[in-house]
Design brief:
mainly beta, 212 residues, 49% strand
Length: 212
């Protein structure tokens, strides 16, 4: 197993209501699941291959809940990455060189029977986790935008966090409102649904808790 580690930022949008039932071991609000997500690696490596500063993204669709399987996935890697870096990012997002069920990527891959060919694209990534604001644009593929939740009476920003001490993706995620438009093989069109902003610190064995 090739050792790897990633410390960075994630911003994603799924079709469920704010808070996302998956985080509470419940079924999706609308009976199915679809999501688009972007990542930026602050620092990381896959064996001897450095991944600092690179970006990646993914799109997923399942006809039911994620754990029921039969999903479709599309991985996207940064056009700025070298061939070795692209291969490393794809391997990590495919759940390779990872202990069983240790990361969300391992689980998502296991639950997708239809794996589309990975894409190489320009990825713009502007995300502020603490402010719950972000924008991810994958050229000719998809765009996600996110903003804070707002009190429906006062219009003031409303902060909500999800704390998962034993999760496989994050320890704490800020919840926001997000929207997605895609033009790829996986069609996603979302308006003001669950937005997730979080820090990632993952390795072959899952979340690195002391620094997450």
């Amino acid at each position: 197993m090739i050792p790897w580690e990633i410390h960075g930022t994630e911003f994603g949008n799924c079709n469920c209501d704010y808070a996302c039932p998956c985080q509470f071991n419940s079924l999706p609000n609308h009976g199915f699941c679809e999501a688009a997500v972007g990542y930026e690696v602050e620092r990381g490596h896959y064996g001897e291959v450095k991944l600092d500063g690179l970006r990646m993204a993914a799109m997923y669709q399942w006809p039911g809940a994620v754990h029921e399987g039969n999903g479709t996935m599309q991985l996207i890697v940064d056009e700025a990455a070298s061939a070795a870096q692209r291969a490393a990012l794809i391997a990590i997002m495919n759940g390779e060189d990872t202990e069983d069920a240790a990361t969300m990527w391992w689980i998502f891959t296991a639950m997708c029977s239809n794996k589309l060919e990975p894409l190489v694209r320009k990825i713009d990534f502007e995300v502020d986790v603490a402010a719950r604001r972000g924008r991810v644009v994958v050229a000719d593929t998809f765009e996600i935008t996110g903003e804070p939740l707002r009190n429906p009476v006062t219009g003031k920003e409303h902060q909500v966090r999800i704390d998962l001490p034993h999760g496989f993706e994050f320890t704490i995620a800020e919840v926001g409102s997000a929207s997605t438009r895609s033009t790829s093989a996986i069609k996603i069109n979302l308006d003001s649904t669950y937005g997730q902003f979080c820090e990632l610190h993952l390795s072959n064995t899952g979340i690195i808790r002391d620094a997450a």
